[in-house]
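PROTEIN DESIGN WORKSHEET
SECTION A - STRUCTURE
LENGTH: 189
TOKENS:
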């Protein structure tokens, strides 16, 4: 696939089953994703890989953070089991004279989305999930986050459901997004 085909084919995969990429393949793809643009080459992020029972530990932490009746807690805990592989995205910002925090967040998102496209190209499905629990204290604890680090949620990764046809994607209105200073811009301008 070329980049255009990969971009067009990518969807957030809400139904994921096993298998997912193994540690070796994941490391290979992360290495490639590290070529994403990154001001100052700070690489201000890290990923925590959660498989098998590690997902259960995360689920328990999410349930502790969410609270509620036992049935609600069980439902929350089960969310961490929706894919064979969860990758916690952790922002590790540094004080830098030229690269503010927002740029470090932007670089992190560039790397994560590059990883998403690489996964797509290899036939793996993924979805980035966030929510109020992502950076809650029990979740931070189980992920072992340092004080300045921030959990940005999880990439859920696995085998996408091949029976689900690609949802049609309405074309984006590029003209509404484009402007210029001296002349109209965009197709048909
Ligand atoms: C930073 C970020 C956080 C997201 N969080 C969630 C989430 O918590 N739950 C969810 O179902 N989808 C989440 N998504 C996926 C979006 O809902 C999804 O990208 C959007 O619906 C468009 O669908 P598509 O990715 O298939 O084009 C998130 C996406 C991003 C980039």
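SECTION B - SEQUENCE
RESIDUE ASSIGNMENT:
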């Amino acid at each position: 696939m070329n980049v255009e085909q990969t971009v067009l084919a990518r969807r957030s995969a809400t139904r994921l089953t096993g298998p997912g990429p193994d540690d070796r393949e994941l490391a290979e793809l992360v290495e490639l994703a590290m070529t994403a643009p990154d001001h100052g080459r700070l690489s201000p992020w890290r990923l925590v890989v959660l498989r098998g029972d590690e997902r259960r530990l995360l689920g328990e932490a999410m349930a502790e953070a969410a609270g509620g009746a036992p049935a609600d807690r069980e439902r929350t805990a089960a969310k961490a089991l929706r894919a064979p592989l969860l990758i916690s995205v952790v922002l590790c910002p540094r004080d830098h004279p030229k690269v503010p925090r927002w740029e470090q967040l932007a670089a992190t998102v560039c790397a994560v989305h590059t990883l998403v496209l690489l996964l797509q190209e290899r036939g793996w499905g993924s979805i980035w999930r966030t929510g109020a629990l992502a950076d809650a204290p029990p979740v931070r604890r189980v992920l072992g986050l340092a004080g300045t680090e921030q959990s940005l949620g999880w990439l859920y990764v696995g085998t996408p459901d091949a029976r689900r046809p690609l949802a049609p994607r309405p074309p984006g209105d590029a003209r509404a997004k484009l402007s210029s200073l001296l002349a109209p811009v965009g197709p048909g301008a």
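SECTION C - NOTES
The chain has seven helices and five strands.
The radius of gyration is 19 Å.
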